[in-house]
Amino acid sequence: MRTIDMTNGARVVSTRSTASLLSQVLWITAAGFVTTAAGAYVAPMLLGGIGFGVLFLATFALILAVNMTARKSPGLALVLFYAFTFLMGVEVGPVIKAYLHIPGGQLVVFQAAGTTALGMAIMAVVAQIANFDYQRVGRTAFWCLIGLCLVGLLGSFVHIVSPGLYAWASLAIFSVLLLVDFMRLRDGAMGLAPVQMALSIYLDALNIFMALLQIFGGSNNSRSRN
C-alpha cells in the first residue's frame, strides 16, 4: 500500500504563501515611504495651515481607522494607510529639511536612510532563522517603549537623559520591534491583514530612521566642532 506524505507539500505551500505575504507587505511599506517623501516635500506649504496639534490627532485617528477597516474593507484601509504616511511625511519634513540645510546634513540623511534600509533587510533575513518566544519579547519591548515615551515627556520639562542616549534607546527598542514584526510575518501575520503589518513595520522603520538621523547628526556635529 502506497502512502502519500503531504507534509513536504504543505511546507512548500506555506513557504510560498509566506513569501507572497512578505512581498505584499514590503511593497505596501515601500510605497508608504514614497508617499512620506512626498509629504515631506510639501510640508512647508501645509504646516502653516494645519499645525502640529491637528496633525498629531489626524495621524493617530488614521492609525485607528486603518486597523478598524483592514478586515472589512482592505481597499479603504490601504487608502487610509497612504493618507497616514503622507501626513507623517508632513510631520517629519521640517526635521529632515533642517538637516539638509546644515553642513554635511545631506550625508547624514543619506546614511540614516541607507542604514534603515539595510537594517530592514537584515531583520527580514534574521527573522527567517530566529527561534525564540517573540511574542514575549515584543511585549517587553512595547513596555520599554511606553517607559521611553514617559521619559521623553518628562524630559520636555526636566532634563533626564541626553538626546543621544534617548536616540540610542529608541533605536534599540524599535529594532527589536521590527524583528518581532518580521517574525510575525514569517508565521502568517498572526491573523493581521497585510496593511496592518505594513503599518507596524512602517512605524518601526520610520522611528529607526529618525533615531539614526539624530545619532549620525550628533556624530557629524562632534566632528565639525573638532
From TrEMBL:
It holds the Pfam family Bax1-I. Keywords: Membrane, Transmembrane, Transmembrane helix. It is a multi-pass membrane protein. It is found in: Membrane. InterPro entries: Bax_inhibitor_1-related. The keyword Transmembrane applies. The chain crosses the membrane at residues 21-43, 49-68, 75-96, 108-129, 141-160, 166-185, 197-216. Belongs to the BI1 family. This is Bax inhibitor-1 family protein.
